[in-house]
Amino acid sequence: MELINQHTKKIMEGCKERAKSAGLNFDTESLEYIVTNRDLLELSPKYMIPTLYDYWVHDIEVLKEKGKYELYPSNPYETVINTRPAISFYNDNNPDWLNVMIFYHVLGHIDFFQNNLYFRNTWEYDFTGQALSDKRLISKLRSEKGRWVDYVIEFARGVDNLVGYYAGLSEINRPYESNRDKLLNFYFDVFLQSEKKIKIHDYVKEVERYNSCKNESGEYGDHIFFSEVVKKHPEFDLMFKKNLKKKNKKKQDVLLFLINNSAFLNKEQNRWMKSVLHVVRNTSMFFQPQIRTKILNEGWASYWHETLFLEDDRIKGHEVDFARVNAGVTSMPRVGINPYALGMRLFYYVEELADKGKLSYDFEQIHNAGQREKYDKKTKTGRDYIFKIRENYSDFLFINNFIDQDFVSSNNLFVAGKRINKQKKVWEYFVKSRKAKDYKQMVSDSLYHPPYIEIDNNKTTDNTLYLKHNFEGKPLVTDYIKNTMMGIEYLWNGPVKLETKEFLNLPKITNQGFTFGFLAPQINKDKAEKKWRSIVYTMEKRKITKRVI
Protein backbone atom coordinates (compact mmCIF):
# COMPACT_ATOMS: atom_id res chain seq x y z
CA MET A 1 0.00 0.00 0.00
CA GLU A 2 1.37 3.42 -0.96
CA LEU A 3 0.20 6.97 -1.58
CA ILE A 4 -0.99 7.82 -5.09
CA ASN A 5 1.66 9.44 -7.32
CA GLN A 6 1.78 13.17 -8.09
CA HIS A 7 0.10 12.73 -11.48
CA THR A 8 -2.94 11.03 -9.93
CA LYS A 9 -2.96 13.47 -6.99
CA LYS A 10 -3.20 16.33 -9.49
CA ILE A 11 -6.28 14.68 -10.99
CA MET A 12 -7.83 14.44 -7.51
CA GLU A 13 -7.12 18.12 -6.76
CA GLY A 14 -8.78 19.07 -10.04
CA CYS A 15 -11.83 17.04 -9.04
CA LYS A 16 -11.93 18.83 -5.67
CA GLU A 17 -11.97 22.26 -7.34
CA ARG A 18 -14.83 21.30 -9.65
CA ALA A 19 -16.77 19.64 -6.81
CA LYS A 20 -16.46 22.68 -4.55
CA SER A 21 -17.54 25.03 -7.32
CA ALA A 22 -20.66 22.84 -7.75
CA GLY A 23 -21.56 23.32 -4.08
CA LEU A 24 -20.01 20.36 -2.27
CA ASN A 25 -18.49 21.20 1.09
CA PHE A 26 -15.63 19.17 2.57
CA ASP A 27 -12.19 19.50 4.16
CA THR A 28 -9.53 20.21 1.58
CA GLU A 29 -7.04 17.75 3.08
CA SER A 30 -7.39 14.09 2.19
CA LEU A 31 -5.22 11.00 1.80
CA GLU A 32 -5.41 8.61 -1.14
CA TYR A 33 -3.72 5.20 -1.23
CA ILE A 34 -3.11 2.70 -4.01
CA VAL A 35 -3.67 -0.97 -3.13
CA THR A 36 -4.09 -4.20 -5.04
CA ASN A 37 -7.51 -5.70 -5.68
CA ARG A 38 -6.93 -8.37 -3.04
CA ASP A 39 -5.82 -5.81 -0.43
CA LEU A 40 -8.91 -3.73 -1.14
CA LEU A 41 -11.07 -6.77 -0.43
CA GLU A 42 -9.48 -7.10 3.01
CA LEU A 43 -10.29 -3.49 3.88
CA SER A 44 -14.01 -3.67 3.10
CA PRO A 45 -14.97 -6.61 5.35
CA LYS A 46 -13.37 -4.88 8.34
CA TYR A 47 -15.96 -2.14 8.00
CA MET A 48 -13.45 -0.20 5.85
CA ILE A 49 -11.19 0.60 8.83
CA PRO A 50 -7.82 -1.17 8.48
CA THR A 51 -6.87 -0.25 12.07
CA LEU A 52 -9.97 -1.86 13.61
CA TYR A 53 -9.38 -4.37 16.41
CA ASP A 54 -8.81 -7.98 15.36
CA TYR A 55 -11.75 -10.33 15.75
CA TRP A 56 -12.47 -13.76 14.30
CA VAL A 57 -15.62 -12.60 12.44
CA HIS A 58 -13.48 -10.11 10.48
CA ASP A 59 -11.17 -12.91 9.39
CA ILE A 60 -14.11 -15.00 8.18
CA GLU A 61 -15.40 -12.09 6.12
CA VAL A 62 -11.99 -11.62 4.52
CA LEU A 63 -11.78 -15.32 3.62
CA LYS A 64 -15.31 -15.20 2.23
CA GLU A 65 -14.45 -12.24 -0.01
CA LYS A 66 -11.25 -13.92 -1.18
CA GLY A 67 -13.25 -16.99 -2.14
CA LYS A 68 -15.65 -14.85 -4.16
CA TYR A 69 -12.71 -13.14 -5.82
CA GLU A 70 -11.28 -16.47 -6.94
CA LEU A 71 -14.59 -17.38 -8.60
CA TYR A 72 -15.55 -13.94 -9.94
CA PRO A 73 -12.48 -11.64 -10.13
CA SER A 74 -13.56 -8.01 -10.42
CA ASN A 75 -12.49 -4.54 -9.36
CA PRO A 76 -14.04 -3.20 -6.13
CA TYR A 77 -13.13 0.32 -7.41
CA GLU A 78 -12.80 2.27 -4.12
CA THR A 79 -13.16 2.38 -0.36
CA VAL A 80 -13.49 5.65 1.58
CA ILE A 81 -13.23 6.14 5.34
CA ASN A 82 -14.98 8.83 7.38
CA THR A 83 -11.93 10.15 9.22
CA ARG A 84 -10.04 13.42 9.64
CA PRO A 85 -8.49 13.73 7.11
CA ALA A 86 -10.65 11.47 4.95
CA ILE A 87 -8.77 8.41 3.67
CA SER A 88 -9.63 6.56 0.45
CA PHE A 89 -8.18 3.48 -1.25
CA TYR A 90 -8.05 2.74 -4.98
CA ASN A 91 -7.06 -0.09 -7.28
CA ASP A 92 -3.53 0.04 -8.61
CA ASN A 93 -4.66 -0.60 -12.19
CA ASN A 94 -7.23 2.18 -12.70
CA PRO A 95 -6.83 4.34 -15.83
CA ASP A 96 -7.00 8.13 -15.41
CA TRP A 97 -10.55 8.50 -16.78
CA LEU A 98 -11.82 5.90 -14.28
CA ASN A 99 -10.04 7.66 -11.44
CA VAL A 100 -11.83 10.89 -12.37
CA MET A 101 -15.18 9.13 -12.02
CA ILE A 102 -14.19 7.41 -8.78
CA PHE A 103 -12.73 10.59 -7.26
CA TYR A 104 -16.04 12.38 -7.80
CA HIS A 105 -17.87 9.47 -6.17
CA VAL A 106 -15.51 9.57 -3.18
CA LEU A 107 -15.86 13.35 -2.81
CA GLY A 108 -19.63 12.87 -2.74
CA HIS A 109 -19.19 10.45 0.17
CA ILE A 110 -16.82 12.79 2.02
CA ASP A 111 -19.25 15.70 1.59
CA PHE A 112 -22.03 13.50 2.96
CA PHE A 113 -19.97 12.31 5.95
CA GLN A 114 -19.01 15.84 6.91
CA ASN A 115 -22.41 17.51 6.49
CA ASN A 116 -25.17 14.98 7.22
CA LEU A 117 -26.39 15.54 10.80
CA TYR A 118 -26.70 11.81 11.46
CA PHE A 119 -22.87 11.73 11.40
CA ARG A 120 -22.64 14.50 14.01
CA ASN A 121 -21.15 12.09 16.57
CA THR A 122 -18.19 11.35 14.23
CA TRP A 123 -17.09 14.94 13.60
CA GLU A 124 -15.10 15.57 16.76
CA TYR A 125 -12.30 13.00 16.50
CA ASP A 126 -10.25 10.84 14.13
CA PHE A 127 -11.62 7.32 14.36
CA THR A 128 -8.65 5.63 12.68
CA GLY A 129 -6.39 6.88 15.46
CA GLN A 130 -8.89 5.77 18.09
CA ALA A 131 -9.31 2.40 16.37
CA LEU A 132 -5.54 1.87 16.34
CA SER A 133 -5.40 2.64 20.07
CA ASP A 134 -8.26 0.19 20.69
CA LYS A 135 -6.53 -2.46 18.61
CA ARG A 136 -3.36 -2.16 20.70
CA LEU A 137 -5.40 -2.31 23.91
CA ILE A 138 -7.17 -5.52 22.80
CA SER A 139 -3.84 -7.04 21.75
CA LYS A 140 -2.30 -6.20 25.14
CA LEU A 141 -5.26 -7.69 27.02
CA ARG A 142 -5.08 -10.87 24.92
CA SER A 143 -1.47 -11.35 25.96
CA GLU A 144 -2.50 -11.04 29.62
CA LYS A 145 -5.97 -12.61 29.78
CA GLY A 146 -5.91 -15.03 26.86
CA ARG A 147 -9.12 -16.34 25.31
CA TRP A 148 -11.32 -14.58 27.91
CA VAL A 149 -10.88 -11.36 25.94
CA ASP A 150 -12.52 -12.94 22.91
CA TYR A 151 -15.36 -14.28 25.06
CA VAL A 152 -16.08 -10.77 26.35
CA ILE A 153 -15.91 -9.35 22.80
CA GLU A 154 -18.31 -12.09 21.68
CA PHE A 155 -20.78 -11.32 24.49
CA ALA A 156 -20.59 -7.57 23.84
CA ARG A 157 -20.98 -8.00 20.08
CA GLY A 158 -24.20 -9.89 20.76
CA VAL A 159 -25.88 -6.64 21.84
CA ASP A 160 -23.81 -3.97 20.09
CA ASN A 161 -26.75 -3.23 17.80
CA LEU A 162 -28.73 -2.00 20.83
CA VAL A 163 -26.56 1.04 21.55
CA GLY A 164 -28.36 4.31 22.29
CA TYR A 165 -27.44 6.02 19.03
CA TYR A 166 -30.33 8.48 18.89
CA ALA A 167 -30.02 9.39 22.58
CA GLY A 168 -26.36 10.27 22.05
CA LEU A 169 -27.17 12.20 18.89
CA SER A 170 -29.84 14.18 20.73
CA GLU A 171 -27.39 15.19 23.45
CA ILE A 172 -24.92 16.46 20.81
CA ASN A 173 -27.45 18.39 18.74
CA ARG A 174 -29.32 19.76 21.75
CA PRO A 175 -26.66 20.09 24.47
CA TYR A 176 -28.57 22.68 26.45
CA GLU A 177 -32.25 23.32 26.95
CA SER A 178 -33.27 26.30 29.13
CA ASN A 179 -35.96 26.02 31.81
CA ARG A 180 -38.12 28.31 29.66
CA ASP A 181 -37.89 25.89 26.73
CA LYS A 182 -38.67 22.92 28.97
CA LEU A 183 -41.67 24.74 30.43
CA LEU A 184 -43.03 25.66 27.00
CA ASN A 185 -42.47 22.19 25.57
CA PHE A 186 -44.17 20.52 28.51
CA TYR A 187 -47.18 22.87 28.46
CA PHE A 188 -47.89 22.78 24.73
CA ASP A 189 -46.68 19.27 23.85
CA VAL A 190 -47.58 17.24 26.93
CA PHE A 191 -49.95 19.05 29.29
CA LEU A 192 -52.44 20.43 26.75
CA GLN A 193 -52.35 17.52 24.30
CA SER A 194 -51.82 14.41 26.45
CA GLU A 195 -53.21 15.45 29.83
CA LYS A 196 -56.03 17.86 28.98
CA LYS A 197 -56.61 16.63 25.43
CA ILE A 198 -58.02 19.98 24.38
CA LYS A 199 -59.54 20.61 20.96
CA ILE A 200 -57.49 22.05 18.12
CA HIS A 201 -59.16 25.48 18.11
CA ASP A 202 -58.55 25.83 21.89
CA TYR A 203 -54.92 24.82 21.37
CA VAL A 204 -54.51 27.48 18.67
CA LYS A 205 -56.05 30.07 21.01
CA GLU A 206 -53.44 29.23 23.66
CA VAL A 207 -50.64 29.66 21.12
CA GLU A 208 -52.10 33.03 20.10
CA ARG A 209 -52.40 34.07 23.76
CA TYR A 210 -48.74 33.23 24.35
CA ASN A 211 -47.64 35.20 21.28
CA SER A 212 -49.77 38.14 22.41
CA CYS A 213 -48.16 38.11 25.88
CA LYS A 214 -44.68 38.07 24.32
CA ASN A 215 -45.49 40.91 21.92
CA GLU A 216 -47.06 43.11 24.57
CA SER A 217 -44.79 42.44 27.55
CA GLY A 218 -41.47 41.37 25.99
CA GLU A 219 -39.20 39.56 28.44
CA TYR A 220 -42.00 39.50 31.06
CA GLY A 221 -44.38 37.78 28.65
CA ASP A 222 -43.50 34.24 29.81
CA HIS A 223 -44.08 35.13 33.46
CA ILE A 224 -47.46 36.73 32.74
CA PHE A 225 -48.55 33.84 30.52
CA PHE A 226 -47.69 31.07 32.99
CA SER A 227 -49.17 33.00 35.92
CA GLU A 228 -52.49 32.70 34.14
CA VAL A 229 -51.82 29.01 33.41
CA VAL A 230 -51.24 28.24 37.12
CA LYS A 231 -54.40 30.13 38.11
CA LYS A 232 -56.44 28.11 35.63
CA HIS A 233 -54.63 24.78 36.26
CA PRO A 234 -53.25 24.64 39.84
CA GLU A 235 -51.90 21.14 39.21
CA PHE A 236 -49.64 22.28 36.36
CA ASP A 237 -46.64 23.26 38.51
CA LEU A 238 -46.50 19.92 40.32
CA MET A 239 -46.91 17.94 37.09
CA PHE A 240 -44.10 19.90 35.43
CA LYS A 241 -41.70 19.20 38.32
CA LYS A 242 -42.51 15.47 38.18
CA ASN A 243 -41.91 15.44 34.43
CA LEU A 244 -38.60 17.23 34.95
CA LYS A 245 -37.43 14.52 37.37
CA LYS A 246 -38.31 11.81 34.85
CA LYS A 247 -36.37 13.56 32.08
CA ASN A 248 -33.28 13.98 34.26
CA LYS A 249 -33.00 10.17 34.50
CA LYS A 250 -31.01 9.40 31.39
CA LYS A 251 -31.86 6.16 29.64
CA GLN A 252 -28.96 3.78 29.23
CA ASP A 253 -28.60 1.16 26.53
CA VAL A 254 -27.80 -2.41 27.55
CA LEU A 255 -24.03 -2.14 27.14
CA LEU A 256 -23.79 1.19 28.94
CA PHE A 257 -25.99 -0.09 31.77
CA LEU A 258 -23.74 -3.11 32.23
CA ILE A 259 -20.64 -0.91 32.23
CA ASN A 260 -22.08 1.41 34.88
CA ASN A 261 -24.10 -0.98 37.04
CA SER A 262 -22.68 -4.51 36.89
CA ALA A 263 -21.14 -5.34 40.26
CA PHE A 264 -19.26 -8.15 38.54
CA LEU A 265 -17.57 -5.81 36.06
CA ASN A 266 -16.73 -3.31 38.78
CA LYS A 267 -14.67 -5.81 40.73
CA GLU A 268 -10.96 -4.99 40.63
CA GLN A 269 -10.00 -8.18 38.78
CA ASN A 270 -12.72 -7.69 36.13
CA ARG A 271 -12.44 -4.00 35.30
CA TRP A 272 -10.46 -4.76 32.15
CA MET A 273 -13.71 -6.16 30.74
CA LYS A 274 -15.27 -2.68 30.92
CA SER A 275 -12.52 -1.41 28.61
CA VAL A 276 -13.45 -4.09 26.07
CA LEU A 277 -17.14 -3.20 26.32
CA HIS A 278 -16.29 0.48 25.77
CA VAL A 279 -14.31 -0.41 22.63
CA VAL A 280 -17.16 -2.49 21.18
CA ARG A 281 -19.79 0.12 22.05
CA ASN A 282 -17.83 3.09 20.69
CA THR A 283 -17.08 1.21 17.47
CA SER A 284 -20.76 0.40 17.03
CA MET A 285 -21.74 4.03 17.69
CA PHE A 286 -19.32 5.17 14.98
CA PHE A 287 -20.88 2.91 12.35
CA GLN A 288 -24.54 3.50 13.27
CA PRO A 289 -25.00 6.51 10.93
CA GLN A 290 -23.43 4.65 7.99
CA ILE A 291 -25.86 1.76 8.42
CA ARG A 292 -28.85 4.13 8.62
CA THR A 293 -27.93 6.20 5.54
CA LYS A 294 -26.80 3.55 3.02
CA ILE A 295 -29.28 4.44 0.23
CA LEU A 296 -28.98 8.18 0.83
CA ASN A 297 -25.17 8.13 1.00
CA GLU A 298 -24.59 5.95 -2.06
CA GLY A 299 -27.28 7.81 -3.99
CA TRP A 300 -25.66 11.16 -3.21
CA ALA A 301 -22.20 9.95 -4.27
CA SER A 302 -23.62 8.41 -7.47
CA TYR A 303 -25.56 11.57 -8.29
CA TRP A 304 -22.40 13.65 -8.10
CA HIS A 305 -20.04 11.26 -9.89
CA GLU A 306 -22.47 11.21 -12.81
CA THR A 307 -23.22 14.95 -12.77
CA LEU A 308 -19.63 16.14 -12.44
CA PHE A 309 -18.04 13.48 -14.65
CA LEU A 310 -20.23 14.35 -17.65
CA GLU A 311 -19.23 18.02 -17.33
CA ASP A 312 -15.50 17.25 -17.03
CA ASP A 313 -13.44 17.93 -20.18
CA ARG A 314 -10.83 15.36 -19.10
CA ILE A 315 -13.08 12.43 -20.08
CA LYS A 316 -13.19 13.11 -23.83
CA GLY A 317 -12.86 9.87 -25.77
CA HIS A 318 -14.00 7.73 -22.81
CA GLU A 319 -17.75 8.44 -22.83
CA VAL A 320 -18.59 4.87 -23.86
CA ASP A 321 -16.26 3.41 -21.21
CA PHE A 322 -17.92 5.59 -18.58
CA ALA A 323 -21.40 4.58 -19.73
CA ARG A 324 -20.49 0.90 -19.39
CA VAL A 325 -19.01 1.24 -15.89
CA ASN A 326 -21.71 3.62 -14.68
CA ALA A 327 -24.49 1.32 -15.89
CA GLY A 328 -22.97 -1.52 -13.89
CA VAL A 329 -23.01 0.63 -10.75
CA THR A 330 -26.34 2.46 -11.08
CA SER A 331 -28.64 0.11 -13.01
CA MET A 332 -31.94 -0.82 -11.34
CA PRO A 333 -32.29 -4.58 -10.79
CA ARG A 334 -35.55 -6.29 -11.64
CA VAL A 335 -35.43 -8.21 -8.37
CA GLY A 336 -34.05 -6.70 -5.17
CA ILE A 337 -32.64 -3.25 -4.43
CA ASN A 338 -29.51 -1.44 -5.61
CA PRO A 339 -28.90 1.42 -3.11
CA TYR A 340 -26.69 3.28 -5.63
CA ALA A 341 -29.39 3.25 -8.30
CA LEU A 342 -32.40 3.86 -6.05
CA GLY A 343 -30.74 6.70 -4.14
CA MET A 344 -29.44 8.43 -7.27
CA ARG A 345 -32.81 8.27 -9.05
CA LEU A 346 -34.59 9.59 -5.99
CA PHE A 347 -32.24 12.59 -5.87
CA TYR A 348 -32.85 13.32 -9.56
CA TYR A 349 -36.60 12.90 -9.01
CA VAL A 350 -36.74 15.22 -5.98
CA GLU A 351 -34.59 17.80 -7.75
CA GLU A 352 -37.03 17.83 -10.67
CA LEU A 353 -40.02 18.09 -8.32
CA ALA A 354 -38.52 21.08 -6.54
CA ASP A 355 -37.50 22.75 -9.82
CA LYS A 356 -41.11 22.56 -11.03
CA GLY A 357 -42.66 23.56 -7.70
CA LYS A 358 -44.30 20.18 -7.23
CA LEU A 359 -43.29 19.88 -3.58
CA SER A 360 -46.23 22.05 -2.59
CA TYR A 361 -49.76 21.81 -1.21
CA ASP A 362 -51.25 23.14 -4.45
CA PHE A 363 -49.69 20.34 -6.49
CA GLU A 364 -50.85 17.67 -4.02
CA GLN A 365 -54.46 18.76 -4.59
CA ILE A 366 -54.23 17.94 -8.31
CA HIS A 367 -55.40 14.39 -9.11
CA ASN A 368 -55.60 14.60 -12.90
CA ALA A 369 -52.58 12.76 -14.37
CA GLY A 370 -52.32 15.12 -17.35
CA GLN A 371 -52.37 18.23 -15.17
CA ARG A 372 -49.79 16.75 -12.81
CA GLU A 373 -47.50 16.00 -15.76
CA LYS A 374 -47.73 19.54 -17.18
CA TYR A 375 -47.44 21.35 -13.84
CA ASP A 376 -44.29 23.53 -13.83
CA LYS A 377 -43.77 26.70 -11.78
CA LYS A 378 -40.11 26.91 -12.90
CA THR A 379 -38.81 27.63 -9.38
CA LYS A 380 -35.33 26.26 -10.13
CA THR A 381 -34.78 25.45 -6.46
CA GLY A 382 -34.07 21.74 -6.96
CA ARG A 383 -30.33 21.80 -6.28
CA ASP A 384 -30.77 23.74 -3.04
CA TYR A 385 -33.51 21.34 -1.96
CA ILE A 386 -31.43 18.18 -2.38
CA PHE A 387 -28.60 19.78 -0.41
CA LYS A 388 -31.08 20.17 2.48
CA ILE A 389 -32.00 16.49 2.12
CA ARG A 390 -28.32 15.57 2.22
CA GLU A 391 -27.97 17.47 5.49
CA ASN A 392 -31.08 16.42 7.39
CA TYR A 393 -32.37 13.04 6.16
CA SER A 394 -31.78 9.36 6.87
CA ASP A 395 -32.81 6.43 4.66
CA PHE A 396 -36.10 6.02 6.50
CA LEU A 397 -37.13 9.66 6.00
CA PHE A 398 -35.85 9.70 2.42
CA ILE A 399 -37.82 6.61 1.41
CA ASN A 400 -41.04 7.44 3.20
CA ASN A 401 -41.20 11.06 2.03
CA PHE A 402 -40.33 10.74 -1.65
CA ILE A 403 -41.22 7.31 -3.02
CA ASP A 404 -44.66 7.88 -4.53
CA GLN A 405 -46.68 6.47 -7.40
CA ASP A 406 -45.21 8.94 -9.92
CA PHE A 407 -41.69 7.82 -9.03
CA VAL A 408 -42.55 4.11 -9.16
CA SER A 409 -44.38 4.44 -12.47
CA SER A 410 -41.78 6.64 -14.19
CA ASN A 411 -38.99 4.18 -13.29
CA ASN A 412 -41.09 1.08 -14.07
CA LEU A 413 -40.54 -0.30 -10.57
CA PHE A 414 -42.39 -3.21 -9.04
CA VAL A 415 -42.36 -5.69 -6.20
CA ALA A 416 -41.35 -9.15 -7.39
CA GLY A 417 -42.90 -12.32 -6.05
CA LYS A 418 -41.45 -15.83 -6.12
CA ARG A 419 -43.31 -19.07 -6.84
CA ILE A 420 -42.60 -22.62 -7.89
CA ASN A 421 -43.33 -23.64 -11.48
CA LYS A 422 -44.67 -27.16 -10.98
CA GLN A 423 -44.33 -28.12 -14.63
CA LYS A 424 -40.73 -27.01 -15.07
CA LYS A 425 -39.90 -27.68 -11.41
CA VAL A 426 -38.04 -24.38 -11.03
CA TRP A 427 -38.56 -21.16 -9.10
CA GLU A 428 -39.87 -18.26 -11.14
CA TYR A 429 -40.30 -14.55 -10.38
CA PHE A 430 -43.39 -12.55 -11.24
CA VAL A 431 -44.65 -8.99 -10.88
CA LYS A 432 -46.49 -9.00 -7.57
CA SER A 433 -47.36 -5.30 -7.34
CA ARG A 434 -46.66 -1.97 -9.04
CA LYS A 435 -48.19 0.11 -6.26
CA ALA A 436 -45.99 2.72 -4.60
CA LYS A 437 -47.27 1.64 -1.20
CA ASP A 438 -46.03 -1.92 -1.70
CA TYR A 439 -42.70 -0.88 -3.21
CA LYS A 440 -42.07 1.58 -0.37
CA GLN A 441 -42.87 -1.15 2.15
CA MET A 442 -40.42 -3.52 0.46
CA VAL A 443 -37.64 -0.92 0.64
CA SER A 444 -38.52 0.01 4.23
CA ASP A 445 -38.39 -3.66 5.26
CA SER A 446 -34.83 -3.85 3.92
CA LEU A 447 -33.62 -0.96 6.09
CA TYR A 448 -31.60 -1.44 9.25
CA HIS A 449 -33.92 -1.44 12.25
CA PRO A 450 -32.57 -3.12 15.39
CA PRO A 451 -35.03 -4.07 18.15
CA TYR A 452 -35.70 -1.46 20.82
CA ILE A 453 -34.76 -3.11 24.10
CA GLU A 454 -34.46 -1.09 27.30
CA ILE A 455 -33.77 -1.70 30.96
CA ASP A 456 -36.90 -1.94 33.11
CA ASN A 457 -35.66 -0.12 36.22
CA ASN A 458 -38.79 -0.97 38.21
CA LYS A 459 -38.26 -4.72 37.81
CA THR A 460 -34.45 -4.80 37.84
CA THR A 461 -32.94 -5.65 41.22
CA ASP A 462 -29.40 -5.96 42.54
CA ASN A 463 -29.51 -9.60 41.52
CA THR A 464 -31.81 -9.79 38.45
CA LEU A 465 -31.54 -7.74 35.25
CA TYR A 466 -34.93 -7.20 33.55
CA LEU A 467 -34.94 -6.30 29.85
CA LYS A 468 -38.06 -5.18 28.02
CA HIS A 469 -38.50 -5.42 24.25
CA ASN A 470 -40.71 -2.58 22.99
CA PHE A 471 -42.65 -4.62 20.46
CA GLU A 472 -43.10 -2.94 17.04
CA GLY A 473 -44.82 -5.72 15.14
CA LYS A 474 -41.68 -7.78 14.46
CA PRO A 475 -40.62 -10.57 16.83
CA LEU A 476 -37.05 -11.18 17.92
CA VAL A 477 -35.12 -13.90 16.08
CA THR A 478 -35.52 -16.73 18.58
CA ASP A 479 -32.41 -18.58 17.33
CA TYR A 480 -30.18 -15.88 18.85
CA ILE A 481 -31.99 -15.28 22.15
CA LYS A 482 -30.31 -18.05 24.15
CA ASN A 483 -26.69 -17.23 23.30
CA THR A 484 -27.24 -13.48 23.60
CA MET A 485 -28.85 -13.79 27.03
CA MET A 486 -26.10 -16.16 28.13
CA GLY A 487 -23.53 -13.49 27.31
CA ILE A 488 -25.48 -10.83 29.20
CA GLU A 489 -25.84 -13.17 32.19
CA TYR A 490 -22.07 -13.58 32.30
CA LEU A 491 -21.45 -9.83 32.21
CA TRP A 492 -24.20 -9.16 34.77
CA ASN A 493 -23.32 -12.21 36.90
CA GLY A 494 -26.93 -12.90 37.77
CA PRO A 495 -30.28 -13.98 36.31
CA VAL A 496 -31.46 -12.08 33.23
CA LYS A 497 -35.09 -11.77 32.16
CA LEU A 498 -36.32 -10.64 28.75
CA GLU A 499 -39.92 -9.63 28.12
CA THR A 500 -41.03 -9.76 24.49
CA LYS A 501 -43.91 -10.95 22.29
CA GLU A 502 -44.27 -14.01 20.10
CA PHE A 503 -46.98 -15.30 17.78
CA LEU A 504 -48.15 -18.46 19.51
CA ASN A 505 -50.75 -21.14 18.85
CA LEU A 506 -52.51 -21.78 22.13
CA PRO A 507 -55.45 -24.11 22.86
CA LYS A 508 -58.78 -22.31 22.59
CA ILE A 509 -60.67 -22.04 25.88
CA THR A 510 -64.44 -22.29 25.75
CA ASN A 511 -66.96 -21.88 28.59
CA GLN A 512 -68.64 -25.29 28.49
CA GLY A 513 -69.42 -27.71 31.29
CA PHE A 514 -70.17 -27.30 34.98
CA THR A 515 -67.98 -28.12 37.94
CA PHE A 516 -69.59 -28.17 41.38
CA GLY A 517 -72.34 -25.83 40.18
CA PHE A 518 -69.97 -23.32 38.56
CA LEU A 519 -69.37 -22.67 34.85
CA ALA A 520 -65.85 -23.97 34.21
CA PRO A 521 -63.54 -23.20 31.26
CA GLN A 522 -62.95 -26.14 28.95
CA ILE A 523 -59.94 -26.57 26.66
CA ASN A 524 -60.72 -27.41 23.06
CA LYS A 525 -57.67 -29.30 21.83
CA ASP A 526 -58.85 -29.38 18.21
CA LYS A 527 -58.91 -25.59 17.85
CA ALA A 528 -56.21 -23.06 18.64
CA GLU A 529 -55.98 -19.28 18.90
CA LYS A 530 -53.19 -17.50 17.04
CA LYS A 531 -52.27 -14.32 18.91
CA TRP A 532 -49.30 -12.21 19.93
CA ARG A 533 -48.52 -13.30 23.45
CA SER A 534 -46.28 -11.66 26.02
CA ILE A 535 -43.35 -13.95 26.79
CA VAL A 536 -40.69 -13.78 29.48
CA TYR A 537 -37.39 -15.57 28.86
CA THR A 538 -35.23 -16.23 31.92
CA MET A 539 -31.55 -17.07 31.70
CA GLU A 540 -30.15 -18.40 34.95
CA LYS A 541 -27.03 -20.49 35.41
CA ARG A 542 -26.73 -20.84 31.60
CA LYS A 543 -30.16 -22.46 31.33
CA ILE A 544 -33.04 -20.70 29.58
CA THR A 545 -36.73 -21.01 30.36
CA LYS A 546 -39.78 -19.43 28.77
CA ARG A 547 -43.24 -18.68 30.09
CA VAL A 548 -46.34 -16.94 28.76
CA ILE A 549 -47.63 -14.00 30.80
Concise structural overview:
This protein is 54% helix and 16% strand. It has 23 helices and 11 strands. Strand 9 and strand 10 form a beta hairpin.
Main features:
five-stranded mixed sheet; 23 helices; alpha+beta; four-stranded mixed sheet; 549 residues; 5 domains
Task: Tell me the radius of gyration.
Answer: 28 Å
Tell me the overall shape.
globular
| Number of E-type strands | 11
How many structural domains in the coordinates? 5
Distance between the termini: 58 Å
- Name the helicity range: 40-55%
Strand ordering within the main sheet = 7-8-9-10-11
Could you describe the largest sheet, including whether it forms a barrel? 5 strands, mixed
Structure commentary:
With 549 residues, the chain is α+β, with helices and mostly antiparallel strands. The protein has 5 domains: 2-116 and 293-324, no CATH class; 130-164 and 252-289, no CATH class; 179-248; 331-446, no CATH class; 453-548, no CATH class. The chain contains 23 helices and 11 strands. It has helices at 6-21, 37-43, 56-71, 96-115, 127-145, 148-157, 165-173, 179-195, 200-217, 221-232, 236-248, 254-261, 271-292, 294-311, 319-330, 339-355, 361-364, 369-374, 382-392, 395-402, 405-410, 436-446, 478-492; strands at residues 2-3, 30-35, 78-81, 86-91, 415-421, 426-433, 453-455, 465-469, 496-515, 518-540, 543-548. The strands form 3 sheets. Strands 7-8-9-10-11 form a 5-stranded mixed sheet. The protein has a 4-stranded mixed sheet with strand order 1-2-4-3. It has a two-stranded antiparallel sheet with strand order 5-6. Helix 1 packs across helix 4 (96-115) and helix 8 (179-195) crosses helix 11 (236-248). The longest helix is centred in the middle third of the chain and has 22 residues, at 271-292. Mean pLDDT is 85; it is low at 511-521.
